[in-house]
C-alpha cells in the first residue's frame, strides 16, 4: 500500500487491503478511524454490499495506531493526518476531538486533519461544534455531491438532496472549514446526460469547493445499481458519450480557484488543472479526444441523441 510502512505494521494499522483517500491528500499520513458507511445505501457504491456494519476504533485503539505510525520516520515528518473512513464526520464531536488531541500528542508535527463526510453529517453538527473541530485542526472534509439532479440522487438512493448539499457547504463556509467535492459522470444515464452535466456544474458553481474529484460510473458486480441498468432506469453511456458529458460539465463550470481532479482510474482521459486558469487547456484535451483530427466526428451518429 505505502512503500515506507513495513508490512507487519501496515497489517496492524489498516483492516482493508485498499485504503481510500482523496488524491489531494496523497502526502498525508493515514489513520484508520472507521470502516463502512453510516448510510450504506447508495446503489453505485461498492461499500453498500459489504458484509460488515459501520464500526469505529476506540480511542485506545486510535492511540495504539498513532504510536505505530510514530515509529515510522517518514510519518513523523508529516504535517497532515487523513482520517480514513467513509464518513468519519458522523462520529461524535467529543470523540473526534479526542482523536485530534491524541494525534497532536503522539505526532507533534501534525498541524491539520482531513476526512470524508456526507452532507447530512455536516448538518447534524451545530456551528458551534463544527467550529470546535476547526479550532482543533480539522481543515477540510470531502463530500460526495455525485449529481446536481435530485431525480438522480433519489434514483441512486444517495439519501440527501442537492439543497442539503448546498446547506452543508454554507455551514462549512460560515465556520471556516474547507471542503472538496466529487461527482460521477454517467450517473444519470444517457437520456439525462446533458441535464446531469449542466445541473451538476451549476451546483459546483454555487458553492466554494477547494477541489473537485471527477469520476465515471463504474458498475461493480453485485452493486445495487445493476438492477436499475437491467430494468432501463439508467442507460449506461459509452466512453465517447462520457467524454462529451464531461466536456459539457467543464464548459459550464465558472468556479474560481477550483482544483479539478479528473484523474480517477475510471476516467477515459485524465485531466487536471486549476479553474478558471487551465479551463481552455483542459477543454482542448477533451476536444482532441472527442473529435480526433476530424471535426466531422462531432456529427457522428453516436452523439446525435445528445
Question: How would you describe what is shown here?
Answer:
It is a single chain. The protein has a single domain (7-303), classed as Aldolase class I (TIM Barrel), CATH 3.20.20. The chain is built from 12 helices and 10 strands. It has helices spanning 7-13, 59-69, 73-76, 93-106, 119-123, 127-135, 150-155, 162-175, 193-206, 225-230, 239-251, 279-291; strands at residues 29-32, 34-35, 55-56, 80-84, 112-117, 138-146, 178-185, 211-216, 258-262, 271-275. Strands 1-4-5-6-7-8-9-10 form an 8-stranded mixed beta sheet. Strands 2-3 form a two-stranded antiparallel ribbon. A hairpin with an 8-residue loop joins β9 and β10. The longest helix has 14 residues, at 93-106. The relative contact order is 0.11. Residues 295-306 have low confidence and may be disordered.
Q: Report the top-level CATH class.
A: Alpha Beta
* Helical percentage: 25-40%
Biggest sheet strand order reads: 1-4-5-6-7-8-9-10
Rg of Cα set = 20 Å
Task: Kindly report how far apart the N and C termini lie.
Answer: 41 Å
| Count of all domains | 1
Strand content: 15-25%
Q: Mean pLDDT score, rounded?
A: 92
Class derived from helix and strand content: alpha/beta
Q: What is the name of the CATH topology? A: TIM Barrel
| Main pleated-sheet profile | 8 strands, mixed
The low-pLDDT segments are 295-306
- Under the CATH scheme, the architecture is Alpha-Beta Barrel
Question: Which term fits the overall shape?
Answer: globular
Order of H and E elements = HEEEHHEHEHHEHHEHEHHEEH
**DSSP helical segment count:** 12
Under CATH, the homologous superfamily reads Aldolase class I
Find the count of extended strands (DSSP E, 2+ residues). 10
